[in-house]
Amino acid sequence: MATFDPQEREEAGRSMATRAERLLELSERDDQGWSVLALKGRLDSVTVGRFTERCAAWIDAGRGNVVLDLSGLDYVSSAGLSSILGAAKRAQERNARFVVAGLKGLVKEVFAISGFETVLSIFPDVESAITAS
To answer: Which among 15, 50, 67, 98 is placed 20 to 30 Å from 28, CA to CA?
Structure first.
């Protein structure tokens, strides 16, 4: 039976957090009363925990409606799709609108194949999402 040194376990946890930070950049800004949450990189099993935590905090802060800007996202896995759906439900529970903007390339294709284009409000860019809503 293998034993784990608590220090090694802690170092491994820090290593995963650092990797997730390198693979997915998250930022937030306010734009005309909307919280714009921008993702850059990959949203997958390695980064989904970080996204879910940060997104929940942003939504729970109650700053109003949310535009998820995916124009900088290069890849999304099924875990990433699930976390986006969870964020949309969380926003809805708090009576906030949740829309997606900036789909392109592989990410746009994954949204189309998975049927997410029919479940979420999707706009070509942040500006059009805010203007239309």
So the answer is: 15
Q: Which domain holds residue 30?
A: 24-132
CA–CA separation, 122 and 70 (whole Å): 10
pLDDT bin (cut points 50, 70, 90) of residue 28 is very high
Mean pLDDT of 91-99: 94
Percent of the chain with pLDDT over 70: 86
DSSP 27-86: EEEEETTEEEEEEEEEESTTTHHHHHHHHHHHHHTT-SEEEEEEEEEEEE-HHHHHHHHH
The CATH number linked to 54 is: 3.30.750.24
Predicted confidence band of residue 17 (pLDDT cuts 50, 70, 90): low
